[in-house]
Design goal:
58% of the residues lie in helices and 8% in strands. It is mainly alpha-helical. The chain has one domain. The radius of gyration is 18 Å and the shape is globular. The termini are far apart.
């Protein structure tokens, strides 16, 4: 009975929600679910993540990550750090994620590759861009259309199954709870470019985004970091970042003139 009610509710949501949308960079998207529904999914996934992965309690590391995230969030239109929850997970994985519902997770291992505040801002800006561009909604909507919506119903019903893990992966969660599912190349490109602008608007040096991806490659060795395993090769994305760098540097210089000069101590 519960499952039937969930399926009916989801069907109504899809019926009442427009399907066609446009991303912040002008790309057509399939968006079926209200953002309030996506936020509920993201919050649920984040809570489950905390039950399965230890949260790092180190005060200095937390203050550092919170500092960088706060500057990036403030650079967003109407961005308020108090509206976002940012946690550091005590894992060696080189990874980070952001979820609908304004949740951000950073793994301790990422800080070995993101060598300074600017490179960490590049990662956080990239992940926030996935949320603001509604990439998770787009992926869940596509999955709903192709597989009759049962995945969405199961996550709402709280079933712990491989299907639920897959849906968490569609939301953008990493391997601890969700299956590692890469965003598609168009979504990745959007997150790269939007994240570049966002970090520059916050006063972080956008040139460090290129250094970050080179660090990722060096850290990979025979097996790439988790963050790279869910993202395309860095070669093409560095080219795209370089093509947008002049514009990003203008934004960065304007931010510095306006007094946005982050100083987040590691």
């Amino acid at each position: 009975m519960m499952m039937k009610r969930v399926l009916v509710a989801v069907a109504l949501i899809v019926t009442l929600t427009p399907g066609c949308a446009t991303s912040p960079l002008g790309r057509s998207q399939l968006i079926l679910f209200p953002e309030a529904e996506m936020a509920q999914m993201g919050v649920g996934a984040f809570q489950e993540m905390q039950e399965q992965a230890p949260v790092l309690r180190d005060g200095k590391i937390n203050r550092y990550v919170q500092c960088v995230a706060s500057h990036v969030i403030r650079a967003m239109p109407g961005g308020n750090p108090a509206d976002w929850e940012v946690l550091v997970f005590d894992g060696a994985e080189v990874n980070a994620f952001a979820l609908p519902g304004r949740k951000i997770g950073v793994y301790r291992g990422l800080l070995k590759v993101a060598e300074n505040q600017h490179q960490l801002a590049a990662v956080i800006g990239h992940e926030i861009a996935h949320v603001t561009a509604k990439h998770a909604n787009e992926r869940v909507s596509t999955q709903f259309v192709t597989e009759s919506g049962l995945q969405v119903a199961q996550i709402a019903a709280g079933a712990t199954t491989p299907v639920k893990q897959e849906l968490f992966g569609l939301l953008g969660l990493g391997a601890q709870v969700g299956v590692l599912l890469p965003f598609n190349r168009k979504q990745e490109s959007e997150a790269d470019l939007m994240g570049l602008d966002l970090m520059a608007d916050a006063g972080f040096d956008p040139r460090e985004s290129v250094s970050l991806w080179r660090n990722m490659e060096k850290a990979g060795g025979q097996r790439p970091p988790d963050f790279l395993s869910t993202h395309p090769s860095s070669t093409g994305r560095i080219t795209e970042l370089d093509e947008r760098m002049k514009s990003a540097m203008n934004r960065y210089n304007q931010a510095r003139v306006a007094g946005r000069v982050p100083d987040c101590a590691r």
